[in-house]
Every structure is written in structure tokens, then in C-alpha cells.
Amino acid sequence: MKLPALRIRGITINPPIIQGGMGVRVSGARLASAVANEGCAGIIASVGLGDFVELAGKKATEVNREALRQEIRRARSLSNGVIGVNVMVALTDYDELVRIAAQEGADFIISGAGLPLDLPKLVEDDRIALIPIVSSARALKIICSKWRKYGRMPDAVVVEGPRAGGHLGFKREDLEQNSPVNLEQLVTETLELVNTFDPVIPVIAAGGIFSGADIARYLELGASGVQMATRFVCTDECDVHDRFKAAYLDAKEDSMQIIASPVGMPARCVGGDFVDRIAQGETTPFVCRYQCLKTCDPTTAPYCIARVLSDAANGLMENAFAFGGSNAPKCTEIVSVHALIEQLVEEASACYRGSEKVEVA
Questions:
Q1: Which residues lie below 8 Å from residue 72, measured CB to CB, with a gap of 6+?
Q2: Sign, CA torsion 174/114/156/152
Q3: What is the dihedral angle through the alpha carbons of 222, 212, 332, 338, rounded to the nearest 10 degrees?
Q4: Quick one: pLDDT at residue 289?
Q5: Are 71 and 98 in contact (CB under 8 A)?
Q6: Taking the CB of residue 124, how many other CB atoms lie within 10 A of it?
Q7: Fewer CB atoms near the end CB (10 Å): N or C, the chain?
Q8: How far apart are CA 125 and CA 122, in angstroms?
Q9: Could you tell me which of 344, 353, 327, 331 has the C-alpha nearest to residue 215?
Q10: In sequence order, what are the residues at sequence separation of 6 or more whose Cβ sits closer than 8 angstroms to the Cβ of residue 10?
Q11: Nearest to 156 by CA among 345, 1, 12
Q12: Domains in the chain and their CATH numbers?
């Protein structure tokens, strides 16, 4: 059965797949534009786009801001499709990066890693869709209450479950394999909330979605679309270094680890020698040059997460690690974005049963 299109504030995304934003140069213009050219939505992650590691203070900030401008422009030169920008609330220069994304004409701004309570205040152009990322219906309710004061409501919401990669909005115990917290329940609870709104806000399921069968399941559950990040790393067009991609290809089921990130959040990554050394108490002293995230305390952090992720993006894996979702070990080959989306749509269409709903596990 043909999959329904995802419609957000005048934007049509068909197939209903949003490529998730992956920070520090994993999802840039090349990946986002390739995804957009397939009818899906490509996302540029705004954090750490520039060559900022050896720079200090204002200079590093300016480099990253200019890099975001250029990355959006590059994506626009490569695609006429839907291009969004992910901006983490935890970023020190969150406000300015949001404004740049709006100035450069992003189709939508997607924002998590904290509650984007004042996002509407930063975006005057009402043609730009605003999409928060939440890990509970309660968080969405808080956001909507605040946004109403600005005369806006979210144009869609991404509900991210505990199987996602990178920094996560859950307690560590909720990220363990046998945790009762699961994406199906989170999506169901959020759907119950948004169905009380007029108009109803589209719900986008994220975190642990890997196959076309997964896509079909969440569409049948009531989601209007899905967001997938990990699956797009092992594509030809992903902006990250081949050694980063190799970390996924070499990963085994027990390779995925939950770590305590220096910025005060749990995170999921592909384990390895560096992760083991940190777990054993090894530290990498550093001088914080730019305070990129509000939640980072450089005086107690065992290493600089910005440098680690920048090194990983550049393929310098000896003292770094790759962020990834729980399904990273399922990636077994590098394929083109076109081939990946074609496969996903074929699988999802074969499984999708239209309005017939699935039972929540």
C-alpha cells in the first residue's frame, strides 16, 4: 500500500521520512541535500560545523556561525527539496544559530536537547515550521503552554525514544535494554495529547527506527512520519569520514554503550578503546576555548566532547568515538541515499496496512 505523505505547515515530505540531525559534521549539506532530492526531508545539524577546535572564544563562535550559513546555502545549491536545521537548546549560541537558520530560509527548525520554550520568539517568519523534539507527552504539553503566549503552536513534534544515538533526554536507567520505557508507548501518549488540539499536530516517531517495517508500524500506530539518523550514516553521501562509518560496520551488538557525557547527559556511542580508557578513569586535560554547550563544566569534564566528536568526524578515531543509535550494528554496507530510501519505501509499502492500527507492546 502506498505510504501517506507527511505534511507540515505547507511542506510536503513524501516519502514521510526526516533524516535526523547528527552533530559535528556528520549530517551536513551533502547528506541533507541527497535526502531532500529523494522527496524526504534533509537536516543539517548546526553544532560544530566549522573548523573550530583550535580556535578560541568569539572566533570559534563566528567560525561555526558562518559555517552554518554556508552549509545551508550549499544544500540549497544542491537541492530544491525540503531542508531543515537542527539546533540544540543546550548550545551557548542557540539564539543566534536559530536566527541564522531562519535568515537563510530553512524550511523548518527542529530543536531538542532541552525544551525550546522560546523558539517562536526567535523566528519571525511564520512560513518556517517550528518542530520541538521531546521524550514525553508531558514535555510537549509544557512547550505548547509556553508557545501559546507567542501565538504559535508546534507545527509538528518529534517524539524521540530511548534507543536513539548521541545525547539523550532520558535517565540512564531508562536507557538500559530491559527498561519499561519504549517508543511505542511514548508515541501513543503523545498522540492522545495532540488529538485534543485543533488542528492536530503531526507526530514524528524517532529513535530506533531502522527498517521499512519499522516505518510502517509507526504510521499504523498513528504517527504522521518518522525520523531516522543512524541508518543514514552508512551512505555514500554522509558527510562524515569513512573511518567513522567503519565504526558502524565493525560494531557488534555489545559494542553500543551508554556513557556519561561531559556535558551532563547520558549518550549512546559505539564503544572502543577510548571509551574503555575513559571508563577506567583516564582523563584528557584541556582548556575550554569556547564553552559550546551551556551544560558543560570544563573544570570537572574528563575530556572535551567537542574535540572528541570533531576528531571522530575527521576519522581520527584513536582518541574519539562515534555516536550512534542502538541499531548501528545492523549497518552492514555503504549504500547511496537513493538506494537506501528506495529500499525503505519498498519494505514499508509491503508492510503498511493503511488505517489499520497496531497493538502497543
A1: 29, 44, 83, 85, 100, 101, 104, 105, 106
A2: positive
A3: -110
A4: 67
A5: no
A6: 9
A7: C
A8: 9
A9: 344
A10: 127
A11: 12
A12: 6-241+331-351 (3.20.20.70), 243-319 (no CATH)
3-class secondary structure for the chain?
Answer: CCCCCEEECCEEECCCEEECCCCCCCCCHHHHHHHHCCCCEEEEECCCCCCCCCCCHHHHHHHHHHHHHHHHHHHHHHCCCEEEEECCCCECCHHHHHHHHHHCCCCEEEECCCCCCCHHHHCCCCCCEEEEEECCHHHHHHHHHHHHHHCCCCCCEEEECCCCCEECCCCHHHHCCCCCCCHHHHHHHHHHHHCCCCCCCCEEEECCCCCHHHHHHHHHHCCCEEEECHHHHCECCCCCCHHHHHHHHHCCHHHEEEEECCCCCEEEEECCHHHHHHHCCCCCCCCCCCCCECCCCCCCCCCCHHHHHHHHHCCCHHHCCCECCCCHHHCCCCECHHHHHHHHHHHHHHHCCCCCCCCCC
pLDDT of residue 68: 97
Cβ atoms 19, 42 nearer than 8 A: yes
Query: Are 101 and 49 a contacting pair, CB within 8 Å?
Result: no
Q: Under a CB-based contact definition with an 8 Å cutoff, are residues 39 and 3 in contact?
A: no
Residue 39: its pLDDT value, please? 98
Report pLDDT for 361: 41
What are the Cα distances from residue 258, in Å, to 29, 50, 267? Answer: 29, 27, 5
Q: How many angstroms separate the CA atoms of 26 and 136, rounded?
A: 26
Q: Is residue 49 a contact partner of residue 67, using CB atoms and an 8 Å limit?
A: yes
pLDDT beneath 50, residues of the chain: 358-361
Phi and psi torsions of 133, nearest 5°: -105, 130
- State pTM to two decimals: 0.93
Q: What is the identity of the amino acid at 333?
A: E
